Amino acid sequence: MTSSLTAPDNATPASETVHADYPEDSASRHKASTIVLQGLEKRFGADTIALDGVDLTIDSGEFFTLLGPSGCGKTTLLRILAGLETPDGGRLLLGDKDITEIPPHRRSVNTVFQSYALFPHLSVRENLAFGLRMQGISEAERNRRVDDIADFIQLGPLIDRRVDQLSGGQRQRIALARALVCEPEVLLLDEPLSALDAGLRSQLQVELLRVQKRLGMTFVFVTHDQQEAMVMSDRIAVLDGGIIQQVGPPRDVYERPVNAFVARFMGHDNLYPVTNRDGSALMTDLGTLHLTTPPDGDLLLIRPETLDLLPGEQAGDNRLFGTVTECLYRGSHAEYRLEVGSTTMQATVRNCGGNLPAVGDRVTVVVSTDDLVTLNA
Amino acid sequence: MAYSGVLPSARSRAMVSESRHLLMTVAPGAVWIFIFLVLPSFYLMSVAFMTNGTYGLPEMPLSLESFKRLAGFGFLGWSAGNLFTLLRSLWQTVVSTGLVIIIAYPIAYYITTCREKWRPIMLLLVVVPSWTNQVIRTFGWMNLLAPGTPLAEFAQMLGLVPANMGLYPSNFAVTLGLVYNFLPFMVLPLYAAFEKLDHAQVQAAQDLYASPVRAFWHAVFPQTLPGLLAGIVLVAIPAFGMYVIPELLGGGKGMMLGNLVANQFSGGSNWPLGAAGAILMLIATFIGLYAMRRIGKRLGGGEEVVI
């Protein structure tokens, strides 16, 4: 019984599940393509507008994320890319080909479905070979490519199992391998990690990102989780009501949201209507703040992590005074809710070992004017 | 490790009491089946090997006379009549089962694509006709296919039947009656199979370069196989032995094995011959079931195929 205390030899650390040596020739064979969406429109029934004129260019080799709440049109957009849905208006270009009218089985685009949609009547190997078989690729070639991808994703002994014998994480990886083995120009992923628990989810996020960087394939990823979107993406498009609200790298979208919807969806709560302005000075319910650049928006965004808290009231430029009403201690940092002026605000303070204010304390909020953003409601 | 010596005997004692329990529950049914199914079956089989008496009742001595007659050897030498009846039964079974499959697939699939609250109603619509007595429904078809009805006149217009004739009695009418009668028995198991299917799998197949036809054949069809095989058993076996429909819609040239057997117990009065026919029917059914089982295993219906 003592031998069971020794870790089995084949245990691999979570961070090394993706093999580095996917055959070079296969990797270079992938031709990633640019996707251009022009004025895409889609309606369901008379009054449900799923997409309302979407223009977008997704660069080749990019990890591009469609982010938004449920019903924002992100899944519809992905299904149009896959060919499973036909747009009511607009055009869709893959490389320099117009593929708007091309049915799904003639598009060099593959999808990882949210439910994985593995075929339960086929073994894992047969599932992986399905796309190649439908393309009429010879059995020898099929086996070689399935073995390569199985090595690459490290499926190992799973390859001859039945699908119903697999766990959620294993299914997810097989769904990914089944799409990758076809070497599509674009890989579409429809919330592929949403059914997994948190630990497995972050492990597979890393794994997925490595696969994409390694293959240089264009990935279009759909999620409603802004954290996930920021971790994975080269660029994010935030959708709401069938309209693209903002497109940009994660930092842009998070730090400089263009409107209140994007700001709230990215998790910002410190939004204050501008009641009055005088040159670079802004009046809000918090008090008066000075901005380095002349403000143009009518809503002020203060990110909680850009704030600093000092004990007591210490006067100075761009300082606000408030009272701590709530404190969530998170170890590496602490989250505060403060009463400032006639309203409340949130502040996140890094735990550097110094004194952390307690509930009821009077504090000075130091606002860094470089990080203040105004936006349009 | 200490308890390992005790466990097996305790477990076996538990198993004995459990199996005794099970036996008590099963016994009344088993007795019933033995008295009213197994014993009569043996009686029927023995009848088949007896001689036909004066009034059609079985008499000693034992003989293979009825099997000879069933094979077509009568007083006037060999005739192909019975053989034709057997072949017609097989043919009608195969054709009507095939048609039922072709009609039931789209219906079952369509119902699964409907909104969830409509599905029970749609299924009800499929099943409701079978709540009416089969004889009455078959009489209904007689009225629909009789001479002078729109259907019959339309067929005359196309030159399919001679003037002043109806669409029945005919083999066509029998096929029609069988298809109509057995459709629900195919739709229900297929619906159950379709309902288990994740619709995303169809899309996944198309996404993986399968045309709609190939997506059905490679992704959908294999998964509906257990339902299809169950449906075939529910349709083909009763269709093979069907009595009412060929009796009313078939006429003299539409007779099936069921009618042949029935006639020996009533009008024709030759019990041993009827019993021999019944045995033939039983053997054919077992052969069919065995074939289905083999096909099911071959096509990979897996453990779900329990025939």
TrEMBL record, chain A:
* Annotated region (Disordered), positions in chain: 1-26
Listed A to Z, the keywords are: ATP-binding, Nucleotide-binding, Transport
Chain intervals with Polar residues compositional bias:
1-15
* Gene3D superfamilies named in the record: P-loop containing nucleotide triphosphate hydrolases (3.40.50.300)
Residues in domain ABC transporter?
A: 35-266
Any one of the GO CC terms: ATP-binding cassette (ABC) transporter complex
Gene Ontology MF annotations? ABC-type transporter activity; ATP binding; ATP hydrolysis activity
Q: Which SUPFAM superfamilies match?
A: MOP-like (SSF50331), P-loop containing nucleoside triphosphate hydrolases (SSF52540)
What superkingdom does the record give? Bacteria
Name this polypeptide is given: Spermidine/putrescine transport system ATP-binding protein
Which species? Aidingimonas halophila
UniProtKB/TrEMBL annotation, chain B:
Q: What GO biological process terms are annotated to this protein in UniProt?
A: transmembrane transport
Q: Which residues form the ABC transmembrane type-1 domain?
A: 86-292
Keywords carried by this UniProt record: Cell membrane, Membrane, Transmembrane, Transmembrane helix, Transport
PROSITE patterns membership: ABC_TM1
Question: Which Pfam families does UniProt cross-reference here?
Answer: BPD_transp_1
So where does this one cross the membrane? Answer: 29-49, 93-111, 123-142, 172-194, 215-245, 271-291
Q: Does the keyword Membrane apply?
A: yes
The residues the entry assigns to the signal sequence are none
Q: Classify the protein's membrane topology as the record does.
A: Multi-pass membrane protein
Q: Where is the protein localized?
A: Cell membrane
The main location is membrane
InterPro entries listed in its UniProt record: MetI-like (IPR000515), MetI-like_sf (IPR035906)
Q: One GO cellular component from the entry?
A: plasma membrane
Highest rank taxon of the organism: Bacteria
| Family stated for the protein in its record | Belongs to the binding-protein-dependent transport system permease family. CysTW subfamily.
The identity of this protein, by name, is Spermidine/putrescine transport system permease protein
